[in-house]
Here is the input.
Amino acid sequence: MERLKEITKQFGLELSDKQISQFSKYYEMLIEWNKVMNLTAITDENEVIYKHFADSLLLCKYKKLHENLSIIDIGTGAGFPGIPLKIAFPNLKVTLMDSLNKRLNFLNEVISELGLSDTTTVHSRAEDAGHHILYRECFDLAVSRAVANLSSLSEFCLPFVKVEGYFIPYKSGALPEEMKTGKKAIRMLGGRIENIFTTKLPDTDIERSFVFVKKIDKTPNLYPRKAGTVTKKPLGM
Here is the structure.
């Protein structure tokens, strides 16, 4: 895990010995739980360090995360990027949302074992929670590494963001192909693309893009649409 410390230094993040210890414990738990449930296809320690931990933390190159921001990680899966961001920036108030309860059982154990305060889990589909008074337009920042086109991902995530807050998806691959429909969908949802940052994971050829979507107006009550519709009929297409 000392390798993680070296990697993150390259993008301006200094991890303490305590934080490295927390990442080490997180990795151990990930591997142990992965034996009985499908959390990740990546299990090699070096690959987890690069493709899960460092990748999750790359956001801090472009977004200040030292403030007491409320952040929701939608479709968090095994906790990426939410848990690594919480470990690195303990001041964050983190909500981890996923539709599979067994993943949240794992995350609740991680939260307990690592002693992560102000970190909660929510068992729900984004289409449902996005209309709930406890979550709708309640967060400073929404993030997601979920695999979906920008249009669908924006409909899943923007309803959770406060006006003046941000939705920042972790994107890779053919981003330009998504931009035309994505921009239209984002406008319909009350957002505006403010910036796009593309970088590479240190010491690799793996590209990562961050799309900074600022919430400039309330999301119309129609969105998100009911389960299934968001991905079958993406906005803007």
